[in-house]
Design brief:
heterodimer, A: about 325 residues, TIM Barrel, eight-stranded parallel β-barrel, two-stranded antiparallel sheet, 13 strands, about 40% helix, disordered C terminus, B: about 1200 residues, alpha/beta, Rossmann fold, Pyruvate-ferredoxin Oxidoreductase, domain 3, nine-stranded mixed beta sheet
Chain lengths: ~325, ~1200
């Protein structure tokens, strides 16, 4: 029995629900080709970081100016670069190259917190040929003077401003740390998001005990991380006017199947590709098809959201009830 | 034909634009002030810019100017149109090939930004001593007076050399023309094509060596034919004047600008005529125009074709009414009857003047870019008009020794009222010069006005003062001299108000713009008496802007350039305000557009914020200030230091007479201590409670501005309040105290000391034992503390554990407060070496950064200890430093032998004990050296009482009994490139010299050109596309001799290793080479964290630490750093030199970084094998042999 893996995400027709998440792997055209060969339905390019661009521009400018026009013998220290491609230029070139190299949809990604130059970058990403844009709002609310409501307004303003400059679909990737994630998701969709990507994994700082300094630690996701976005995808499915993608914790076909059952239109993978190679894409897709055949699902569309809060036999399980159940049934595991 | 446009560029660019179009090959080498020409052509080639033949010229950097000349010669012989650019010593190194190229009648042009040849001192500035040294080479000389002519004569030289076959020197004044920005009409490629006859190009190519038509050049000839053969070229030289006239006429037909071999300007009936060439002619012409308009019978002959000198054309150019010719030479030829141009004029008149000869007088002017002004021109005319003028004179200085100088009236001015004349005082770091260059461009390229900009820099690399001189005129600006009467003066730094007399240059009613934190109501009170007086007397219009606040608000840091530029345009009325703002923003977009939106937005914000922050100040009618300007040196010093060096420091060097100067270029050391430049905004403040007394702050300080002392508690008597002392942590001085002290006015605020400080507060990890804090909060206290600190006696050297970081920093540095860059990576090594060996050190320094901050007037950082001993230092040349230092050693060894012989001869009178003690002392430890000093003192006492010629001779040479430490110091440009041949020979000779290579991996002093030390993948000038080849392994080359001690060190990565390697190298009684990693501005890094970056350089294997000790058995090579950890790329990408290529050419960058990683891996593998290798049996014998020699 053949199964129909097609899905629709951000209005894009995808041949299956497996999308490669924004990560350094997708910056290589060779990798994109291989991912497509293995069956990936779409790929999100690594994020263009607002702070990175600003930092690079300022530092590069400082390095070019430092010590110049001070001493008669060394008025400058570097040749004026004949061609200089700033990070955004390189990024746009990658989009163009990717569009030439593969036929799957290519989703650009912006990571930032201010309105700044985002509308301009968003427009340029669209012009470069991206099929959609993923806006990754990475905001650590460390300003004690800002209320939750003010922070939320910043999100919404940013989404609205970027959406206004775009004609391609816009996905918004957020973290789970809202007082009312569901309400916020609704508002983000109302502000113009065509899709929500749940959830962002924030890079957390660590302390280096030898040097007594802060050192950021990037750790790959693990399958347990799936459960948090799974809950919220299930809650939001059918209640928010936007596509849903689940990211964080999909390491096998089971993760992807759960995501779809909860109501995701697509599941995103990255960490597992680092751990098991790009060919894992094909394995996950094969596993999905196999499971669907076993369970006699005809299509992904049929499968999607069948275990959402709205559709599952035990809606309370996605709320406090599940917590209670877990506590009361937990018998402990031998250590 | 493309339409010509007006461009505003400097002389170097004007020249290189033509050279790029006319050549297929350029062999280049950096030397100030010509480096810019090669840099531009290299950058253009990297960008794919083609010549008129449709190809991209091949640009290659050679190891020296001698190498460049050789490559040019070869390229010409093989048929390519080839040129080079050079100046000064560089041109002198080309002379041998110039003889050959001319002897072979080969068409080429060398472009020379004429620069002073080093004599009693080096000078980077302009005069004609270099080109005059080439007169006998057989080249044609074509002079350019201005930026426009630098371009025009360049093209004329190419046209003429192809037609005549005689090679051409095309030259103009270094700095005054090479670096002057002026508005010129740009020649198009079509103009160039029209001037270059392709048949002549083909003829040039046909003369090339070609195996299909074999021939031979460069024969050896004998007395029978050499002479005749040498005369065979005569017709070619005879034709040159006509050829040049011909191409000048052709050029005039194309461009409308008519030149002649000699151009006369002035009264048709002139009686006094000046003869000059290059930029002095422009000044003279301005004066002649002014004087003739007032009826004076004066004129000027501008020499264009100086060689071959057409005496007939010269005579023809002169008005026949001339009574006196005053010939001006910008060079000095001691002992000659006169300077070269003077002698040529005398000979030309003698040969061709039809009647009774006019009188000819000759004078020198403008050596080393000494100002030459219309006032001086008038003085020359006045002298020439006298009944009996001086036959030989100088002008522009006061010669009170031989009384040759002409007096002149500095108030004589030819400046026109309708010319905007603006002078700007800024700091190098604030962007003033860059903004002013842009202003000149804005006016020059967007208005009918002509524009001129010239920029003066002081001799410091950190906190240097810049003075910009701008003119905007409705007429072309001929006068190449500094603005003498300004109608606009801007002070971009409020601290200058207290130190510089900026307003003496302001004319009546001028505008004075001041950047100050004080508002319009307070600023008046911040001005010293002299400044207020001039503002009142001259009725100056005073404006104030807090540019730092505007810049800060715009996130521009200390870059106040756009703020001040906007205020200038607002006040100077050169352009309507709106148009000016729009043009400024256009220029910002052009200048910074590539750097990204953030930079553009911040600059625009600074422009927008400037106008509202600008305020007019109501000037009181009277002076109210209570304080005076303080300029020059501070403190007590010998009269020469205060009256001569202090005057130079105060900006009054031009006023010093000849009698004030040393006759042979010898100066006292230790004079930076009087400067107190106080350039830091923040200074390090010590927290004694946290300090672990490691000494790293003191070790890493590039300026010896943070120091450490240990002393007995009684030394604290009289300490000022607030002087901090804590118990010494260490066994060697029980009960003692110690202090870490900042020199608040000598610190440059670089922050390296904080970067290296390992001690962190337990309560707040960001707080260290050294923390940068605002200077003004601490200045008064720390000034008193530092004065007291210096008065504490230094510890007895013999008791110091010098081979530890902490111990080393108890030794007095004898290199202090240099003018090196803030955060310099070189100077900590030099300082450390003087701490160990400074009291018996002879240093020779290759030309480069270390010679400039080591020996640039007015102040010298090498200094003396309490007993008056310290490094004795000299610089010979760039290329000969190893040989120069080797010469030191030869002399010392000879003197030691001589002195030893005298000692033995006088043993009877002196006593055998003393003599044998003196001769047997190996002087390997501080204790032994102290004992030797004592014995020498005893010897002197005894010798004083012995009446014997041998005793007198021994008294004169007794100093040689103290072991001398010879240090040969230089950068990688010297050691890897231009000086390598000599260095290699010194390796081979095996004498006891210590060679320190401060490896910044670029030619730092001339602005970051690639050397053979530059790593693969780094962008540098002359390697604009990223250096394709790997770094040369100098250490391996030295080790191949087997008897050279070699150490590769990094003070930031492993200070203890550096200390021990330096000490072991010095102790080695043979040749020692130390290669020291020196971070540099040229790396494009944050200099504050330079030492931390050194750690990463070593950690990733980029800079392995090792030492090779020929005496170490069985393994002379020791690999002293850990195996590489981490990727080279991660280290590289923190530096703009690598990151630039990643942005410009990502694929090239990736490939080169990969190869760079391979370089690291391969070198590490090789070193590991070396470290495991045992020395062969032959060494024992070799060692014994060496000991016998020693």
């Amino acid at each position: 029995m053949s199964v129909d893996l097609r899905t629709k995400y951000l209005g894009l027709e995808l041949k299956n629900p497996l999308v490669v998440a924004a990560c350094p792997l997708t910056q290589s055209i060779d990798n994109l080709k291989r991912l497509e060969e293995h069956g990936a339905a779409a790929a999100v390019l690594p994020s263009l970081f607002e702070e990175q661009i600003t930092h690079e521009e300022v530092e590069f400018s400082r390095a070019q100016d430092f010590g110049t026009e001070s001493f008669a013998e060394s008025l400058t220290y570097f040749p004026e670069p004949a061609e200089y491609r700033a990070t955004p230029d390189i990024y746009l070139d990658t989009i163009r190259d990717a569009k030439k190299a593969v036929s799957m949809p290519i989703i650009g990604s912006l990571n930032g917190v201010s309105r700044g130059g985002w509308t301009e970058y968003a427009r340029r990403i669209e012009e470069a040929g991206a099929d959609a844009l993923e806006l990754n709002i990475y905001l650590i609310a460390a300003d004690m003077n800002l209320s939750g409501a003010q922070i939320e307004e910043k999100y919404l303003e940013l989404v609205a401003a970027v959406k206004q400059s775009l004609s391609i679909p816009l996905a918004v990737k957020v973290g789970p740390y809202f007082s009312s994630p569901g309400h916020m998701a609704t508002r983000i969709a109302e502000a113009g998001a065509d899709g929500l990507v749940l959830f962002n994994r924030f890079l957390q700082p660590d302390i280096d005990l030898d040097e007594l300094r802060i050192s950021p630690k990037l750790k790959l996701s693990n399958p347990y991380e799936l459960l948090l976005p799974l809950r919220w995808v299930a809650i939001l499915h059918g209640r928010v006017g936007a596509s849903l993608a689940l990211t964080s914790g999909i390491h096998s076909e089971t993760g992807l199947i759960k995501a779809l059952l909860a109501g995701a239109d697509a599941g995103m993978v990255a960490s597992v590709l680092y751990q098991e190679g790009l060919e894992k894409v094909a394995a996950i897709l094969a596993g999905l098809a196999e499971w669907m055949r076993e369970k006699e699902y005809l299509s992904v569309e049929q499968l999607k959201g069948s275990m959402s809060q709205e559709n599952c036999p035990d809606p309370a399980a996605f709320e406090r009830g599940n917590y209670m159940k877990a506590l009361t049934t937990f018998a402990g595991e031998p250590i | 034909m493309a339409e010509r446009r007006f461009v505003t560029i400097d002389g170097n660019e004007a020249t290189s634009s033509i050279a790029h179009l006319c050549n297929e090959v350029m062999a280049i080498y950096p030397i100030t002030p010509s480096s810019g020409m090669g840099e531009l052509t290299d950058a253009w080639a990297a960008a794919g810019k083609k010549n008129i033949f449709g190809t991209i010229p091949h640009i290659v950097e050679m190891q020296s100017e001698a190498g460049a000349a050789g490559a040019v010669h070869g390229s010409l012989q093989a048929g390519a149109l080839t040129c080079t650019f050079t100046a000064s010593q560089g041109l002198l190194l080309m002379i041998p090939n110039m003889f050959k190229i001319a002897g072979e009648l080969t068409s080429t042009v060398f472009h020379v930004s004429a620069r002073t040849v080093a004599t009693h001192a080096l000078s980077i500035f302009g005069d004609h001593s270099d080109i005059m040294a080439c007169r006998s080479t057989g080249w044609a000389f074509l002079a350019a007076d201005s930026v426009q002519e630098a371009q025009d004569m360049s093209l004329l030289a190419y046209a003429a050399t192809l037609e005549s076959r005689v090679p051409f020197l095309h030259y103009f004044d270094g700095f005054r023309t090479s670096h002057e920005v002026n508005k010129i009409e740009e020649l198009t490629a079509d103009d160039v094509k029209a001037m270059i006859d392709m048949q002549l190009v083909e003829a040039h190519r046909d003369r090339a060596l070609n195996p299909d038509r074999p021939k031979l050049r460069g024969t050896a000839q004998n007395p029978d034919v050499f002479f005749q053969a040498r005369e065979a070229c005569n017709p070619f030289y005879d034709r040159v004047p006509a050829v040049v006239e011909g191409v000048m006429d052709k050029f005039a037909a194309i461009t409308g600008r008519q030149y002649h071999l000699f151009d006369y300007v002035g009264a048709a009936d002139a009686e006094q005529v000046i003869v000059s060439m290059c930029s002095g002619s422009g000044v003279a012409e301005e004066a002649v125009d002014y004087l003739t308009a007032r009826g004076a019978k004066v004129g000027l002959v501008k020499v264009r074709l100086y060689r071959p000198f057409s005496s007939q054309a010269f005579v023809d150019a002169l008005p026949k009414t001339v009574k006196t010719l005053a010939v001006l030479d910008r060079t000095k030829e001691p002992g000659a009857l006169g300077e070269p141009l003077y002698l040529d004029v005398v000979a030309a008149l003698a040969e061709n003047w039809p009647d009774a000869l006019p009188r000819v007088i000759g004078g020198r002017y403008g050596l080393s870019s000494k100002e030459f002004t219309p006032a001086m021109v008038k003085a020359v005319f006045d002298e020439a008009a006298k009944e009996t003028p001086r036959k030989h004179f100088s002008v522009g200085i006061k010669d009170d020794v031989t009384n040759l100088s002409l007096p002149y009236d500095p108030s004589f001015s030819t400046e026109a009222d309708d010319v905007v004349r603006a002078v700007f005082y800024g700091l190098g770091s604030d962007g003033t010069v860059g903004a002013n260059k842009n202003s000149v461009k804005i006016v020059g390229e967007n208005t009918p006005l002509y524009a001129q900009g010239y920029f003066v820099y002081d001799s410091k690399k950190a906190g240097s003062v810049t003075v910009s001189h701008l003119r905007f005129s409705p007429r072309p600006i001929k006068g190449s001299y500094l603005v003498s009467k300004a109608n606009f003066v801007a002070c971009h730094q409020s601290v200058f108000v207290e130190k510089l007399d900026m307003l003496s240059i302001a004319e009546q009613g001028a505008t004075f713009l001041l950047n100050s934190p004080f508002g319009p109501d307070e600023v008046w009170d911040s001005l010293p008496i002299e400044t207020q007086q001039q503002i009142v007397d001259k009725q100056l219009k005073l404006y104030v802007v807090d540019a730092y606040r505007v810049a800060r608000d715009a996130q521009m840091g200390v870059r106040i350039n756009t703020v001040m530029q906007t205020c200038f345009f607002k006040l100077a009325n050169v352009l309507p305000e709106d148009e000016a703002i729009a043009r400024i923003k256009d220029t910002i977009t052009k200048t910074y557009g590539k750097r990204g939106e953030t930079i553009l937005k911040r600059n625009f914000a600074a422009v927008d914020g400037a106008l509202s922050a600008l305020h007019k100040v109501e000037v009181p009618s009277e002076v109210t200030s209570k304080y005076h300007l303080t300029a020059g040196f501070q403190g007590e010093a010998e009269p020469f230091v205060l009256n001569v060096l202090g005057e130079i420091m105060a900006g009054n060097g031009d006023r010093l007479p000849v009698s004030a100067m040393p006759v042979d270029g010898t100066f006292p050391t230790g004079t930076t201590q009087y400067e107190k430049r106080s350039v830091a905004l923040d200074i390090p403040i010590w927290d004694a409670e946290i300090c672990i007394q490691c000494g790293l702050c003191s070790l890493g300080c590039p300026h010896a501005a943070i120091r450490m002392k240990a002393y007995p508690p009684e030394a604290l008597e009289g300490a000022p309040d607030g002087f901090v002392a804590v118990d010494w942590k260490g066994k060697e001085y029980p009960g003692w105290k110690m202090t870490v002290q900042v020199a608040p006015e000598d610190c440059t605020g670089c922050g390296l000391c904080v970067d290296v400080c390992p001690a962190k507060s337990r309560e707040a990890a960001k707080h260290r034992a050294i923390n940068m804090q605002p200077k003004l909060d601490h200045l008064e206290k720390e000034r008193a503390n530092y004065k007291f600190f210096l008065s504490i006696p230094d510890v007895d050297r013999a008791t110091v554990k010098a081979d530890t970081v902490k111990g080393s920093q108890l030794l007095l540095p004898l290199f202090e407060y240099s003018g090196a860059c803030a955060g310099c990576g070189e100077t900590p090594y030099l300082k450390l070496i003087t701490q160990f060996f400074g009291d018996r050190m002879l240093a020779c320094n290759a030309t480069g950064c270390s010679s400039i901050y080591g020996g640039n007037l007015p102040s010298t950082p090498y200094c003396k200890n309490a007993t008056g001993q310290g490094p004795s230092w000299s610089n010979s040349l760039f290329e000969d430093n190893a040989e120069f230092g080797f010469g030191y050693r030869l002399a010392i060894d000879q003197q030691i032998e001589y002195t030893g012989g005298l000692l033995k001869k006088l043993a009877g009178a002196l006593g055998d004990d003393l003599v044998s003690a003196l001769l047997a002392n190996k002087q390997e430890t501080e204790e032994e050296i102290a004992r030797q000093r004592q014995a020498v003192a005893e010897l002197r006492d005894k010798l004083a009482g012995i009446d014997d010629p041998a005793a007198k001779a021994l008294l004169a040479s007794a100093d040689f009994l103290i072991r001398r430490s010879v240090w040969i110091i230089g950068g990688d440009g010297w050691a890897y490139d231009i000086g390598y041949g000599g260095l290699d020979h010194v390796f081979a000779c095996g004498r006891d010299v210590n060679i320190l290579v401060l490896d910044t991996e670029v030619y730092s002093n001339t602005g970051g050109q690639a050397s053979k030390a530059t790593p693969r993948g780094a962008v540098a000038k002359f390697a604009a596309g990223g250096k394709p080849s790997g770094k040369k392994d100098l250490g391996m080359m030295a080790m191949s001799y087997g008897n050279v001690f070699v150490g590769q060190i990094s003070l930031g990565a492993n200070p203890l290793h550096a200390i021990r390697t330096i000490r072991a190298a010095e102790a080695y009684r043979g040749t020692s080479l130390i290669i020291a990693y020196a971070h540099c501005i040229g790396h494009g890094i944050n200099m504050t964290t330079g030492m931390s970056l050194q750690k990463e350089a070593v950690a990733c294997g980029y800079w392995p630490l090792y030492h090779f000790d020929p005496n170490a058995q069985p393994r002379p090579f020791s690999l002293d750093s850990k195996p590489p950890k981490g990727a080279f790329k991660d280290f590289a990408m923190q530096q703009a030199r690598f990151a630039m290529l990643a942005r410009a050419k990502p694929e090239d960058s990736e490939r080169l970084l990969r190869l760079g990683q391979d370089d690291i891996n391969r070198r590490w593998n090789l070193y590991e094998q070396l470290a495991a290798t045992t020395r062969g049996a032959g060494n024992g014998e070799e060692k014994q042999e060496k000991e016998v020699q020693a």
